[in-house]
Automatic annotation (TrEMBL):
<protein>
    <submittedName>
        <fullName>6-phospho-beta-glucosidase</fullName>
        <ecNumber>3.2.1.86</ecNumber>
    </submittedName>
</protein>
<keyword id="KW-0326">Glycosidase</keyword>
<dbReference type="GO" id="GO:0008706">
    <property type="term" value="F:6-phospho-beta-glucosidase activity"/>
</dbReference>
<comment type="similarity">
    <text>Belongs to the glycosyl hydrolase 1 family.</text>
</comment>
<keyword id="KW-0378">Hydrolase</keyword>
<feature type="active site" description="Nucleophile">
    <location>
        <position position="363"/>
    </location>
</feature>
<dbReference type="InterPro" id="IPR017853">
    <property type="entry name" value="GH"/>
</dbReference>
<dbReference type="GO" id="GO:0005829">
    <property type="term" value="C:cytosol"/>
</dbReference>
<dbReference type="GO" id="GO:0016052">
    <property type="term" value="P:carbohydrate catabolic process"/>
</dbReference>
<dbReference type="InterPro" id="IPR018120">
    <property type="entry name" value="Glyco_hydro_1_AS"/>
</dbReference>
<dbReference type="InterPro" id="IPR033132">
    <property type="entry name" value="GH_1_N_CS"/>
</dbReference>
<dbReference type="InterPro" id="IPR001360">
    <property type="entry name" value="Glyco_hydro_1"/>
</dbReference>
<dbReference type="Pfam" id="PF00232">
    <property type="entry name" value="Glyco_hydro_1"/>
</dbReference>
Length: 472
């Protein structure tokens, strides 16, 4: 018997910079992603380069009708996408929005409504307009708060009644680890002072809270969530020092949710700032703004890590921006991300116990090097035999069901990359997540034709049964 509630929002999640392409069409300005041809691997370039796949994406800007029809065929109840900030305000600091950009998302919403798919929209998914990064220094600058809230108010008004679920910043805690991608700060992390970094964090938190306030004022039906990277951290040994290290490093993740949910800075973060010699510029207006708390907490979950008091004594593992000590009990993906389905149940219970706010899993999936093969039974003659992805998602969803049975209130689950897209961290197409294969290669070649993978029908059946087809 399924534990998934009626009305559970099954679907998939994407980001504009990884799917849309058309970087110079429809009046769009440049974003920071347009000068990141290698993802996180190298510093940003001065101008867009032809080898940057994100400039081309998977051409969703022109294929959204067909792609949304495929999502509907799978039975999606919701689709998470982001609005490209620089499509609405090309430089970021304009007073008047770009009508062509607004009209594009009107058309996307038309298609979703036609298929009865609930939109879940991220305002800022690692897509700060490049003009704001280079002219204002990104989120280090307090002026960014006004630019962001003006953008938020614009789209809240434009799409009033059409979008009910909103996320402010994607993986907001990532700014501590990658200040350019997550904060539009074009200074290497190693050269950025702790004071500059945490002031930028503060500006984003205030902007998020003010956007939440504006959303509620414009439409009381709006539901606004924060979005964080969720990474359970286990002490590598039972030694209390290792357990304390795990707890203290978890605090850097909890802090963002604590502030969004509770409306003030937690004591452990204030202590950390004191010990780092950081004195933030926090005004009384900022403190008042932070009291505008979120309606739900959303998160990405891909892997877990271990922590140690002496981490140099252990090997380290890769991960979604945040790494840690490798867990010898777990296997890893082709990109070194350790696979831990039970960790998702732990996160769900942990977050629910901590915040008592509805939760939403808005990213979870497996990046793999899929191989397109001939299949005479497939309508288009080809498929991908991705049993490894089916196994990964099944095992994680079984644990989601267990967490719901534990009493966790969960709004929905959107897999990362329901259609193959350009990787944020590596800027590759070969790191594929989708149920739909897109014929585009790392060098940009390919027909862009879409093919259904084996997992397409599997996920369709999971949704249709509301989780009853999952194998425990």
């Amino acid at each position: 018997m399924t534990t998934f509630p009626q009305g559970f929002l099954w679907g998939g999640a994407t980001a504009a910079n990884q799917i849309e392409g058309a970087f110079n069409e429809g009046g769009k300005g440049l974003s920071i992603q347009d000068v990141m041809p290698n993802g996180l691997a190298t510093p940003p370039t001065e101008e867009p380069t032809e080898d940057n796949l994100k400039l081309k994406g998977i051409d969703f800007y022109h294929t959204y009708v067909e792609d949304i029809a495929l999502f509907a065929e799978m039975g999606f109840k919701t689709f998470r996408f982001s609005i490209a900030w620089s499509r609405i305000f090309p430089n970021g600091d304009e007073q008047e929005p770009n009508e062509e950009g607004l009209a594009f998302y009107d058309r996307v919403l038309d298609e979703l409504e036609k298929h009865g798919i609930e939109p879940l929209v991220t305002l800022s998914h690692y897509e700060t307009p490049l003009g704001l990064a280079r002219q204002y220094g990104g989120w280090r600058n307090r002026e960014m708060i006004g630019f962001f809230t003006h953008y938020a108010e614009t789209v809240f008004n434009r799409y009033k009644g059409r979008i009910r679920y909103w996320l402010t910043f994607n993986e907001i805690n990532a700014v501590l680890h990658n200040p350019f991608m997550a904060g539009g700060i074009e200074v290497p992390r190693s050269e950025l002072s702790e004071s500059e970094l945490y002031q930028a964090v503060h500006h984003e938190l205030v902007a998020s809270a003010l956007a939440t306030k504006i959303a509620h004022e414009i439409d009381s039906e709006n539901q606004v969530g924060c979005m964080v990277i969720a990474v359970p951290r286990y002490g590598i040994t039972p030694d209390p020092k290792d357990q304390l290290a795990a707890q203290q490093r978890s605090h850097s993740d909890y802090a963002f949710g604590d502030i969004h949910v509770r409306g003030y800075y937690p004591g452990y973060l204030l202590r950390e700032l004191r010990e780092k010699g950081v004195e933030l510029d926090i005004t009384d207006a900022d403190r008042e703004a932070l009291t505008n708390t979120v309606d739900f907490v959303s998160f990405s979950y891909y892997m877990s890590v271990c922590e140690a008091y002496d981490p140099e004594n252990y090997s380290t593992g890769g991960g979604n921006i945040i790494g840690g000590v490798s867990n010898p009990t777990l296997e890893a993906s082709e990109w070194g991300w350790q696979i831990d389905p039970i960790g998702l149940r732990i996160v769900l219970n942990d977050f629910w116990d901590r915040w008592q706010k509805p939760l939403f899993i808005v990213e979870n999936g497996l990046g793999a090097k899929d191989v397109l093969v001939s299949d005479p039974d497939a309508a288009d003659g080809h498929t991908v035999e991705d049993d490894y992805r089916i196994s990964y998602l099944n095992d994680h969803l079984v644990q989601v069901g267990e967490a719901i049975a534990d009493g966790v209130e969960l709004l929905g689950y959107t897999t990362w990359g329901p259609i193959d897209l350009v990787s944020a961290s590596t800027a590759q197409m070969s790191k594929r997540y989708g149920f739909i294969y897109v014929d585009r290669n790392d060098d940009g070649s390919g027909t862009l034709k879409r093919y259904k993978k084996k997992s397409f029908n599997w996920f369709r059946d999971v949704i249709a049964s509301n989780g009853e087809t999952l194998q425990g």
